[in-house]
TrEMBL record:
<protein>
    <recommendedName>
        <fullName>GH64 domain-containing protein</fullName>
    </recommendedName>
</protein>
<feature type="region of interest" description="Disordered">
    <location>
        <begin position="380"/>
        <end position="402"/>
    </location>
</feature>
<dbReference type="InterPro" id="IPR032477">
    <property type="entry name" value="Glyco_hydro_64"/>
</dbReference>
<dbReference type="InterPro" id="IPR037398">
    <property type="entry name" value="Glyco_hydro_64_fam"/>
</dbReference>
<dbReference type="InterPro" id="IPR037176">
    <property type="entry name" value="Osmotin/thaumatin-like_sf"/>
</dbReference>
<feature type="domain" description="GH64">
    <location>
        <begin position="1"/>
        <end position="371"/>
    </location>
</feature>
<dbReference type="Pfam" id="PF16483">
    <property type="entry name" value="Glyco_hydro_64"/>
</dbReference>
<dbReference type="InterPro" id="IPR042517">
    <property type="entry name" value="Glyco_hydro_64_N_2"/>
</dbReference>
Length: 414
């Protein structure tokens, strides 16, 4: 069975950090997979008779003292996650299926809610290893990636610097002082310290009155503009360029009888509800991804061609925009990292924003939790990854990443 090494590096300053690795074992009929505490033994939970059944094996992988590196070995995995927790241990459960009950950042009754934890996501199959950091649901612990292939070339995503969470929380408070929209409500604290900053979509889950009509005026302006102008969307797929104008209250496209009602703020932040719900029509779903990205970045009033013709410096310039995403990108060392589900949308040949690394011939993945303390090595490739080389967006579940074809098993404690 094929295996691959991951090097997990602890730079948190804490000597009490654990990792967990979960996913679906591709070479074992996609069975639910966790790695045991020794970092090399697979654990395949069986279907329990009741919900919220405790794991029968210890899957908390100790990383050792700050500055230490723990090397683990994994098989081919789909829908993988590498979880990190500082100063505690995470609690996972198994439901009938079996289905894994993951830690929740949006359920205050979850046993992990008041812990410092975070994760990155990956899929490793016979074609490639694909890994990304993510702020789609929340941001807490800094995570950085370095993927070295068999030719010795390394790709990196540097992620948040040490103390990045505090920087983000300060910026959210500053933004709220400007517009009073509720950005400070995205900050979750513990004993007066910042625990995490959640995304607007997660924030709405915690408080359904948050951002209730935040985008309404901007959406009205977009609809007014395209009542007389023509919007062109490059699907970056077989349909190529498609055009649309507004009539009878809908944004109507010239192909496939595709149209959109005005999206709500919740639709825009989730990328997957209401007007932006997954349709199963590949052309419409490609358009949806690009519209959702343009609304989050607030570029539809300044550019009639989406996503081509855009540059990163034009993103988030309107006063009504996804300021959480803006702040996350501004805080990461190189500006890369998923901040909303379709953050991997971008102009062909443009700069990738998604914070991913991928290679068909991987040798070692190094994941650093706590923030990078050293400069990038000389053999590291450029951080500017051409957008055309990034796996294209695909329809996905809410608050999950467009570049990964994952099925996540969740259970509500409420």
């Amino acid at each position: 069975m094929a295996t691959l090494n991951f090097a997990l590096v602890n730079t948190t300053g804490s000597n009490n950090v654990y990792a967990y690795i979960t996913g679906q074992a591709i070479d074992n009929n996609n069975a639910l997979f966790l790695l045991q505490a020794d970092g090399k033994t697979a654990y395949f939970p069986t279907s329990p008779s009741s919900t919220l059944t405790a794991l029968s094996q210890d899957c908390a992988i100790p990383l050792g003292a700050s500055g230490s590196t723990k090397t683990v070995t994994i098989p081919h995995i789909a829908g993988g996650r590498i979880w990190f927790v500082r100063d505690g241990k995470l609690t996972f459960y198994v439901n009938p299926g079996p289905a894994l009950v993951e830690p929740s950042s949006s359920n205050p009754s979850d046993p992990n809610y008041n812990l410092y934890w975070d994760f990155c996501e990956f899929t490793w199959n016979s074609a490639q290893l694909y890994v990304n950091i993510t702020d789609v649901d929340f941001v807490s612990l800094p995570i950085a990636l370095a993927l070295t292939n068999t030719s010795g070339v390394t790709q990196t995503v540097q992620g948040l610097p040490p103390g990045g969470l505090d920087t983000i929380c300060t910026a959210l408070r500053t933004q709220n002082s400007k517009d009073g929209a509720g950005w400070d409500k995205l900050i979750i604290s513990k004993n007066g310290a910042n625990l995490r900053a959640v995304s607007p979509n997660t924030g709405i889950t915690l408080n359904n009155s948050l951002f209730k009509s935040y985008y309404d005026a901007y959406v009205d302006q977009v609809w007014s503009k395209y009542a007389s102008d023509t919007l062109t969307v490059n699907t970056q797929a077989a349909a190529g360029d498609v055009t649309a104008t507004v009539s009878n209250g809908k944004l109507n496209f010239s192909t496939g009888n595709i149209s959109y009602n005005q999206p709500s703020t919740a639709d825009i932040f989730s990328n997957s509800s209401g007007a932006f719900a997954v349709s199963g029509d590949s052309t419409k779903d490609a358009i949806t991804a690009r519209l959702a990205a343009a609304f989050n970045r607030s570029t539809l009033l300044t550019n009639t061609k989406q996503p081509n013709g855009e540059v990163v410096s034009n993103y988030y310039q309107n006063s009504v925009t996804n300021h959480y995403a803006r702040i996350c990108h501004a805080t990461t060392i190189n500006g890369r990292g998923y901040a909303f589900p379709y953050d991997d949308v971008g102009p062909s040949g443009g700069t990738d924003q998604s914070g991913s690394v991928f290679d068909g011939s991987p040798k070692l993945l190094t994941v650093t939790v706590g923030g990078l303390t050293n400069a990038v090595s000389e053999n590291t490739v450029s951080e500017t990854v051409p957008q055309s080389s990034v796996p294209p967006p695909v329809p996905k579940k809410p608050s999950r990443l467009a570049g990964l074809k994952n099925v996540w098993h969740k259970f509500s404690h409420s």
